[in-house]
Amino acid sequence: MTPPPTILMTANDFWDWVHRPENRDRNFELVRGKVVEVSRPGEVHGVVCLNAGFILSSFIRQRRKGYACANDTGIMWESDPDTVEGPDLFFYDKNRTFADLNPKWTEEIPTLAIEVLSPNDRMTKVNRRIGRFIKRGVSLVWLVDPEEQTVTVYRSDGSPVVLERDDELTGGDVLPDFRCPVADFFFMPEEANQKPASGAP
After folding, report:
1. Does 163 fall in a domain?
2. Which CATH number goes with the domain that contains 155?
3. Domain that holds residue 96
C-alpha cells in the first residue's frame, strides 16, 4: 500500500491524487496541504448517516428549499495551504439547480454540519474539528453519538447542549422550521415494529 505523499498539495493536486486507481478504496482528507488517511466507518455509522440523510432530505422536500450533501463530501475550508475536509453530512439553507453543483470540492460554507461519532473517534479531536467548523462560519453543528444515542448541538453563540433519545431536536433560530425526535437518527424498522400500539397495556 502506497503511503500518502509528504509534499504539500493544493486542492486540485489532491483531487487528482485521490482519484488515482490505487487510491479509489481509501479515504483521505487534506489538512493544510498534508494528506491524511482516515478510517472507513462501520455498519452502525452507516445506518445513522443514512437516517440523518433521510431526515434532511424529508425536511428539504417538505419546505422546497435548501440542499444537502452526504458521504463526506469535500469542502475547501482554507487555501494556501489548502484544507479539504468533509463532515458526514451538511446542509445549505438556499436553493441551487443541479447544473450549478460543483463536480469537485465546494468552497461554500454550509449552514449546518452533521458529524456521526465512530468508535475510534477521540473527543478532543472531534471537538477541535467542530470548533474549526464553527470558526469558519458554520452556524449549527450536530454531533450524533450512536453509542449513547444522543445529539449534541453546537452553536457559535453558546455552550453545547446534549439531547437524549426521547428529546426533540430543533433548528433553533438558524432553522426555525426544523424539528424531529432525536430517536429518528437511530431508527430501525424491526424495533419500530415491536412497539405496542397506542393504548395497548
Report:
1. yes
2. 3.90.1570.10
3. 42-193
pTM higher than 0.70 for the full model?
yes
pLDDT digits 0-9 by tens, 57-69 = 999 999 999 999 9
Asked whether 128 and 154 are in contact (CB, 8 A), the reply is no
Grid coordinates of 82: 489548502
| 94 contacts: CB under 8 Å, gap ≥ 6 | 65, 66, 67
End-to-end CA distance of the chain: 59
Cβ–Cβ < 8 Å for 82, 30: yes
* The residue type at 65: K
How many whole angstroms separate alpha carbon 169 and alpha carbon 89? 16
d(CA 201, CA 199): 6
The number of C-alpha atoms within 13 Å of 72 and in the hemisphere containing its C-beta is 14
φ, ψ of residue 51 in degrees (nearest 5): -60, -45
CA distance 180 to 159: 21
Domain count, the chain: 1
